[in-house]
Amino acid sequence: MAEFLNLHPETVRILARQGAFPNAYKTGKGGRTSHTRIPWSDVEDFRKKAPPASM
């Protein structure tokens, strides 16, 4: 996922916490060690809205 967005994995986690992926959810009990799942549709929507990466 992070590779697809050309972002660091921690950046993706921060964006998810900030609400950039509205349908993201935590697995398990939702604690600190739970994984965050982001639906592919949210990733595609984010990519469409994101400004192009500079070279």
Q: What is the structural class?
A: mainly alpha
**Helix content percent band:** 40-55%
Average pLDDT score: 88
User: Helix-strand pattern, N to C?
Assistant: HHEEH
Low-confidence stretches: none
Give the termini separation. 20 Å
Largest sheet: 2 strands, antiparallel
Query: In which order are the strands of the major sheet placed?
Result: 1-2
Tell me the number of strands.
2
Alpha-carbon Rg, integer: 12 Å
> Tell me, what's the shape?
globular
% residues in beta strands: 5-15%
Describe this structure in words.
- With 55 residues, the protein is mainly α.
- It contains three helices and two strands; from the N terminus they run ααββα.
- Strands 1-2 form a two-stranded antiparallel sheet.
- The chain is globular.
Fold blueprint:
Blueprint: H1 2-5, H2 9-18, E1 25-26, E2 36-37, H3 40-49
Antiparallel strand pairs: 1-2
Overview features:
two-stranded antiparallel sheet, 55 residues, 2 strands, mainly alpha, single chain, globular, 3 helices, 44% helix
Could you write a compact summary of the structure shown?
With 55 residues, the protein is mostly helical. 44% of the residues lie in helices and 7% in strands.
